[in-house]
Structure formats: C-alpha cells, structure tokens
Design brief:
By secondary structure, the protein is mainly alpha-helical. The protein has a domain of 71 residues: Arc Repressor Mutant, subunit A, CATH 1.10.10. Helix content is 61%, strand content 10%. α3 crosses α4. The longest helix is centred in the middle third of the chain and has 16 residues. The protein is elongated.
Length: 105
C-alpha cells in the first residue's frame, strides 16, 4: 500500500506524490501492539513481562528488535526526504510544511 495524496483539512493544503507510510505504521501488527503495551506500561519492561507471561530478557530482546527496525532508514525514506527538499527549492511547498512532513518520518 502506498499513500499518494495527503491533505490538511483545516488549511486545505494538499501534497501529492509517493508518500511513505510512517515507520510505526510499517511495523507488524504484533510489533505495534507491543509498542502500545510498552507505552501503557509507562516503559516498564518488568510490567510487560508479567502481563505477557514471558521473561524479562525476552521482553528486552523484543524491544531491541523493534528499536532496530525503527532505526533502519529505508531507501524510500531517503527518496522522500529528497523530494520534500526539492519541493522547497522549486517553491512547491513552504519550509514550515516541509518541516512537518519530515518530522513524520
């Protein structure tokens, strides 16, 4: 699945092109559920281990795997950054809009 158009409802600005899906959305459903549990547990790996009925080292390893997935910058992320910067240079988008778009990566 690819996003091709994104529009701000309040300011009516739309950006079209191949827009990458945010990193968290690219994680597997299981990884997203783990991250949600992590946040709900206030980052307590011990609480997660108890809730899931698994060992603390297993929880730590799972979190480390997800962190590595999130750190990995894909080629599509690099290309998207380039297109956003080109958009500024060509006057197609403002610097403020570019900052918002790049922060979403």
């Amino acid at each position: 699945m690819k996003i091709e158009r994104i529009r701000c409802v309040s300011c009516k600005i739309a950006v079209e092109g191949e827009i990458p899906i945010p990193r968290l959305a690219r994680l597997s459903p299981e990884d997203r559920e783990f991250i949600e549990l992590f946040v709900k547990s206030s980052g307590s790996l011990k609480a997660i281990a108890q809730k899931l009925g698994i060992s603390y080292p297993t929880v730590r390893n799972r979190l480390d795997e997800i962190i590595n997935k999130l750190k990995h910058e894909t080629d599509s992320d690099k290309e998207y950054r380039k297109r956003v910067l080109d958009g500024i240079e060509e006057g197609k988008i403002s610097v403020d809009e570019a900052i918002k778009l790049l922060r979403e990566l």
